[in-house]
Amino acid sequence: MPLKKEIVWRVGVIYILMLAFAMLIIGKILYLQLVEGGKWKEQAQTLTLKDITIESNRGDILASDGRLLASSVPYYEIRMDMRSTGMDNAIFNSGIDSLSMKLSELFRDKSQSEYKKELVKARKSGERFHLIKRRVNYNQLKKIKTFPIFRLGQYKGGFIALQTNLRIKPHVSLASRTIGKTTLGEGGNVVGIEGAYDEELKGVDGVRLMQRLNGNVWMPVHDGNEVEPRDGMDIVTTIDVDIQDVAENALRKQLVRQEALHGTAVLMEVSTGEIKAIVNLERNSKGQYKETYNYAIGESRAPGSTFKLASIIALLEDGYVELDDTINTGNGEIMYYDKKIADTKRGGHGILTIQEVFELSSNVGISKLITDYYTGKEEKFINRLYGMNLNNRLGFAIKGEGEPEIKYPGDKLWSGISLPQMSYGYEVRLTPLQTLNLYNAIANDGKMVKPKFVKGLMYHGDWVKKFDTEVIKQSVCSRSTLRKVKVMLEGVVERGTARNLRNDNYKIAGKTGTAQLDNREIGYSDKSKISHQASFVGYFPADNPKYSCIVVVNAPSRNVYYGNLVAGPVFKEIADKVYASNTKMHEGLNSAENEEEKNIEIPYTKNSHREELKNALSYLDIETNDEDVISDWVITTRLDSCVKFSNRTITENLMPNVKGMGVKDAVFILENIGISVELQGRGTILKQSIAPGTRISKGDLVVLEMSFN
């Protein structure tokens, strides 16, 4: 083939190949543009645009008076990008010593050399997200931003600060288990009020579109589709911080004193069911008492003798007994098949009235009554218990309520000893709050209300929803039975097993309880060792109930385990302090009789400053007579209907009369005119070494003798 034709042929082949390749490229371009264009545009946007979640502010949990029980506080996690392109070796090396020193001074957890060694090592490893410190507060963050290297920002200084919201409890342990906690697990928030009202507290997260710029910086894009976050609502609880503090201190002292395993105390407002205080303390391996489990809500156990209230209500409602009927309890022991039931009094109580059976907490007496009247009619007794709602949960929003257990005849665990055992609180299970709710119903004239932990929801200070008191039963028994039961509950404290709780200021009504515990439940390896649960539940003031309260102490180990001695003192300390701090409960001070009786005894008053004395006596509603009195200091005289003032003049260079005055006023007068004072004794001034009216000079010494040596 001629050379020319061969060249033309080769060029043609190359041309055709190049044309085909070009056509393929054009075809691919058209395919990408027309067929897959949408897909690649979307993927490109994912690299330059993204939606980020704007976390909402979690609502606060508040006490009944608005004080914070739980709140979210912003904290920061400080990290460092050691491979930031703007941070060269010169910047790092020149500032690392100063940065290490500043970090060491601020956090005081590592030395300067330790910080430097750590940061240099991270730099050599090229870490992009090196952790320096967690839980840094805002004030610390502001200081850190001024530190060497970090002050250059993220690009040149590698500085990264990530905000996290940390849930804190300003009152630390107070009601902490009931308040609950926030968790990050898949199950979400489930503990306490935090879990029960998680949806209301957490609010609604927002969404914001962000665009990526040079230097890996993301900037908000205001495209009109941004969703602002909505803050969570605040939960207003029924907890009274002051009462809660009293209850926790009282229970903790007794648990320590008795070396008990755990204990709980709950105070409830009678008419509303509002829980004013709830304490749950358990001893840990270090011997410290902490809130680790909500025993008041969650622990369902045999209540012991506090259950006798339900038994006596059943007997009275069915008309089987009256308070003055009698029963022979013998020597304090009785056998039911192979089960011996005994009273705590050695030798027994002998013949008792029905009222005394309850007040003295006779196990023999109550078991004989229940078996005598309900054998063959067991269903009637159990139905009475069911009628008091003792077989149902109370249905709290807070999760974890224990299941009550009231067996029914015919159940597989029912036996010949079930009836006498149930009569005094065995073979039944109730939580402390379920027991308290029955006693609260008696205090509330028979009306059973649902215990309430939350008053309502607020948003930015405005009420969104208020929760009304829920009525479970309008009456747990008849009016006649109610009157008799109240007499017996007061009698327990006045004459019965809780006489140690009696006081002269107000009346307490309630019932002691002591129950043996199943050893397996408390982890004893020695199966022969018996442990107990001591309890006291009741209400006060008995003649006009405002609060009901239950105290349960589990496994005291000082050989003292009776309810009146272990749980009773805690109840009384709580009641005393609540009564003392609530003047509305002091009927004697607020009664109509006292309003009518205006015969106020006029008190003795010391000679003093006129205006100060008038203000003090006016506050006490005591009349004063200061007619014709012009002096600032006065002499007082007690009359039948008022305190009369007389002039007490102070003349320059003459010794004033300070007899009959208090030390504070006398010293004030004398030192202001330049007289030195020597005091002997205490009380009211009886004698002065320089007679009134004597000429004096500055610097003279006067000795004041007072009424008590």
Describe this structure in words.
The chain is α+β, with helices and mostly antiparallel strands and 709 residues long. It folds into 3 domains: 52-237, Penicillin-binding protein 2a (Domain 2); 242-585, DD-peptidase/beta-lactamase superfamily (Beta-lactamase, 3-Layer(aba) Sandwich), CATH 3.40.710.10; 608-708, Trypsin Inhibitor V, Chain A (2-Layer Sandwich). The protein is built from 25 helices and 31 strands. Strands 2, 3, 4, 5, 8, 19 and 20 form a 7-stranded mixed β-sheet that branches. A 6-stranded antiparallel β-sheet has the order 11-10-9-24-23-22, with helices on both faces. Strand 2 and strand 3 (68-80) form a beta hairpin. Helix 3 runs antiparallel to helix 4 (112-125).
Question: How is this fold's topology laid out?
Answer:
Blueprint: H1 3-34, H2 37-48, E1 49-54, E2 61-62, E3 68-80, H3 89-107, H4 112-125, E4 130-136, H5 138-144, H6 153-157, E5 159-168, H7 176-179, H8 192-196, H9 198-202, E6 206-213, E7 217-220, E8 234-237, H10 241-258, E9 262-269, E10 275-283, E11 289-290, H11 295-298, H12 308-317, E12 326-328, E13 333-336, E14 339-342, E15 351-353, H13 354-359, H14 363-374, H15 378-387, E16 405-406, H16 418-423, E17 428-429, H17 432-443, E18 448-449, E19 454-459, E20 462-466, E21 471-473, H18 479-494, E22 509-517, H19 519-522, E23 531-540, E24 547-554, H20 563-566, H21 568-581, H22 587-590, H23 592-596, E25 608-609, H24 610-619, E26 624-625, E27 633-638, E28 643-648, H25 663-672, E29 676-680, E30 682-688, E31 701-708
Parallel strand pairs: 2-8, 26-28, 29-31
Antiparallel strand pairs: 1-6, 2-3, 3-4, 3-5, 6-7, 8-19, 9-10, 9-24, 10-11, 12-15, 13-14, 16-17, 18-21, 19-20, 22-23, 23-24, 25-27, 27-28, 30-31
Helix pairs in contact: 3-4, 10-21, 12-14
